[in-house]
Design a protein that fits this description.
49% helix; four-stranded antiparallel sheet; 112 residues; single chain
């Protein structure tokens, strides 16, 4: 395996780590909550705050300039705590695997 292939595989593994962390949180939510969030267009947003190596995660909908946070502090804390368990390099590599265009770009993760 060459370096390019290893880098791609590592990016996919990092992507899988984020997906797994999110799924571990959302699986505990009741079906009514998950259905409401999906129907209303909410997803989990992950970003590096102002290009720093600090991860922010939240349940949100909209676009970069006009967005709405889901109004449940417990769910927001759970999502942030799940991403806090991962090293920032894992998050960055997953974002790169998703082909972000710049370091300030938000990645959106579907609520399963």
């Amino acid at each position: 395996m060459n370096l390019e292939e290893m880098t791609k595989e590592y990016g996919l593994a990092c992507y899988g780590a984020i997906r797994s962390a999110i799924d571990k949180v959302t699986i505990t939510w009741d079906a009514k909550t998950k259905n409401y969030l999906r129907e209303q267009g909410y997803s989990i947003w992950v970003e590096l705050v102002d290009g720093d190596l600090v991860v922010r995660a939240c349940v949100c909908k909209g676009d970069t300039w006009h967005y709405t946070l889901y109004d449940d502090a417990n769910i927001q804390r759970e999502v942030q705590a799940a991403l806090d368990t991962l090293d920032v390099r894992v998050v960055l590599n997953a974002m790169l695997a998703m082909k972000i265009e710049n370091i300030n770009q938000v990645t959106r993760w579907r609520i399963k």
